[in-house]
Amino acid sequence: MKKLKGMRIVAALGALALVAAACGGGEPAPEAGDLGAVTVPDGEAIQIRSLEAITGEVAFLGIPNQTATEMAIDDYGQIQGHDVTIGTGLDDLCSNEGGQAAAQTIASNDDVVGVIGTSCSGAAVAASPVISNAGMVMISPSNTSPALTSDLAGTAGTDYHEGYYRTAHNDLFQGRAVANFAYNELGLTTAAAIHDGDPYTQGLAKAFADAFEELGGTITLFTAVNKGDTDMTPVLSDVAAGAPEAIYFPIFQPEGDFIVQQIGGVSGLENVTLIGADGLLVSDFLALPETEGMYFSGPSLQFGDNSNEITGVSATDFLVSYEDRVGEPPSAAFWAHAYDATTMLLKAIDNVAVDTSDGLFIDRRALRDELNATSFDGMIGHIQCDDYGDCGSQEIQIVSHEDTSVTDSTQLPVVYTFSGKS
Amino acid sequence: MTTTENKPAEGETVVRERRALRLSWVDGFLWAIRIGAIIIIAVGLIGSISKFAAGEGLTAEGWRDLIVSSLAQGAMYGLLALGYSMVYGVLGFINFTHGEVFMSGTMVGFIAANWLFENGIWDANPFLSMILVLIVAMVTSTVVAVLIERIAYRPLRGAPRLIPLITSIGMSFFMQYTFAGLFGINFNTYPPPPDVIAGTVNILGLEIRTTQLTVIVIAILSMIGLWYFVTRTKTGRAMRAVAEDKEIAGLMGINVDRTIVTVFAVGGAMAGVAALMWSLLFRSVNYIVGFIPGVKAFTAAVLGGIGNIGGAMGGGVLLGLFEGVGPILILGGLGIPGVTQLKDAVAFTALVLVLVFRPSGLFGERLGSEDRV
User: What 8-state DSSP symbol labels residue B236?
Assistant: First the structure.
């Protein structure tokens, strides 16, 4: 009986404490929206994350993106007296599993406001729903798969989730650019397309095939190789059966290497025009003698005098700083997109953050609304978001590779440009 | 159960009926698979033949290129499969590290080839260069195979068969990442085949690529050499004896340990030859290049009959053909587009079908007395 009486006293004290806590305070913290909010206490840094492919064969894609993100944070400076940090750069492993695992790590930390990433569309397919459900935002500098945003005709992509944005182009434009180039500029009427099963390559090959047929060309074969395949003779024989004048294979190494090395052994493909995409704009691929005469599609790097309106840094200045910092020029084409994406996020956070007595209050819904209304001039051109997260300038270029001693992809001559937003 | 109450004539009918009714579900299912496979293959073949007759699909040159390239790849699988078959015949477990033995030959062979190329010897003396690379690859693979036997398998000689199998899987990962650490993860590309074996050669009116012909010729020569070694020399006879029955061979005065080392060494040497073939056919190598060919070579060994050396080579060639020609011939004939993505699926389905029709493999297993039922 004594115990029970003691318990009653403790319970009463507990209830009093709860009431006191609820009624205590009196600071005017704003009400959070339906997605919740992040409060950054004074003296602490605002948490964002970088999720790129920083290891493995595609590290050449992710490392420049992460470095550009870090440089943009340095250039922007503090937000309302708070530092911004990306913590440790996370790895998307350029795969579904990697994107999923890293996104779950990020989502489990309530202090994270937004993510700059992923590098690979395949990883974003898994990461986008996780980040979106956590109320956070993700801005990708190099995802290009149409499924992640929309078909540009008003239908959301199958993997579109609210809170996803990107400064990279939508591959529907890249496919159209390559189709225009092949059909109108080169005068080729038959083509085959080869992808490797992942969302980026499949989306791009399909965009090309659809656009090419729309122009009046014929796609003789739409096929794929598996990642890790070494023997390309069967697939090339199958392609040769249709006698196409061009082959578009927007895949990666080493499958791209095997295709160009083995294409000479398949009769019927001697005079075929080979077109790759930016996955193959890597120096050891360009050094292969068999790549002479190839064309490559990719985002336009003709930044000219463009500078990022938010930090005032120009593209040329950025390249100089990058080389000072890393020791060599960026190994892939999306550094400017990463820089612009980071400044886009930082500016939006700056605009919606409210300084309260608890710290900096960042409402997640307000952040998304602010990002939706983005409109500024970045290094890549004018950045403005449509309803499904496509914010980039949609500029595509096609380069030609005549001299195999030139292995720096930025030195290749541009033979065609395409502007998706015109 | 037979029934004896009826007259003999009726009794027989009843017995036969009973036997038919006792056909279990498993047997019935297997028969359904056999019949289904035959139908699909027949329809696919007929479809392909009619497509060819109508002038669609691959041209005659296309088929020729495809078949020769598949044979060359099959020859490579066959040489690798020899290692799996011999080790299984003698020691009774699958040596999963054999793929990495092959990979070590390709990586070190690359160093030699690159050195020769950079010093101009590759183009100046093509045959000498290739023989040098072959020797380097063979020596490396042999040394690695023998080392692995000494370190990982000899201490486990008396252990239950599952233990060395698991050890071999672990050893395989260890080798892969050791090489990744030593050489990095990037692909290294062998110098292009010297001009004398680039291009095509005209055999019996068919234009065949010289690199693929070289690979097939090397495989044939290796098989002849191996056959001679196994059937005509004392060491070969010792190998066959140890494969037959280890204890009795030991009692007969054969040094069992040394013979087993020889088995691994010969398997390693064959893997070294396969490494040269890879360098001619595919040219790009890195630390993980041995994994899938290893799995496929093991499949080939099972396909041909595990423990059977001739079966290993035959299984390899057949697997190469199934994998290269199969998708386009059978599935293409059924009208499915873009079938070459399914070549791995076709290769392993072929394995399943062969085992469903003939469980001991195409040429029959050769197992030691402990494993034979």
Answer: H
Judge whether residue A26 has pLDDT over 60.
no
Gap between the Cα atoms of B277 and B151, Å rounded = 28
Average pLDDT rounded to a whole number, residues A25-32? 63
Number of A to B CB contacts under 8 A, please give it.
102
Q: Is B343 on the interface with A (CB under 8 A)?
A: yes
Q: What is the mean pLDDT of chain B?
A: 87
- Cβ pair B62:A268 closer than 8 A: yes
Interface probe with B: pick from A237, A257, A331, most Cβ of B within 10 Å: A237
Please give the tally of structural domains in chain A. Answer: 2
Q: Cβ of B337 under 8 Å from any chain A Cβ? A: yes
> Residue B161 corresponds to which tokens in the numbers above?
């068969």
A257 and A312 belong to one structural domain: no
For residue B59, the chain A residues in CB contact (below 8 A) are 240-241, 267-268
ipTM of this predicted structure = 0.79
A294 and A202 both lie in a single domain? yes
Report the DSSP pairing between strands A164-166 and A190-195.
Answer: unpaired
Closest to B324 (Cβ–Cβ): which among A234, A257, A288? Answer: A234
Please return the burial class of A28, using the count of CB atoms within 10 Å of its CB with bins 0-12, 13-18 and 19+.
exposed
> Model-level pTM?
0.80
Please determine, for residue A323, whether its predicted confidence score (pLDDT) is greater than 50. yes
Do A202 and A288 lie in one domain? The reply is yes
User: Going by C-beta distance under 8 Å and a sequence separation of 6 or more, which residues neighbour residue A73?
Assistant: A84, A85, A86, A342, A346
Question: Are A56 and A129 found together in one domain?
Answer: yes
Check if the beta carbon of residue A85 is closer than 8 Å to that of residue A107: no
Cβ atoms of A169 and A178 within 8 Å: the answer is no
CATH number of B61-320: 1.10.3470
Identify the burial level of A413 via C-beta atoms within 10 angstroms of its C-beta, where 0-12 means exposed, 13-18 middle and 19 or more buried. Answer: exposed
Residue A267 is classified by DSSP as T
Range of the domain at A53: 37-168+302-391
Cβ distance A231 to B282 less than 8 Å, yes or no, reads yes
Backbone angle region of A40, left / alpha / beta, with phi > 0 → left and psi within -120 to 50 → alpha: beta
Number of other residues whose CB lies within 10 A of the CB of residue A107? 19
Same domain, A158 and A198: no
CA angle B174, B179, B184 (to 5 degrees): 130
Portion of chain A with pLDDT greater than 90, in percent: 64
B209 in contact with A, Cβ within 8 Å: yes
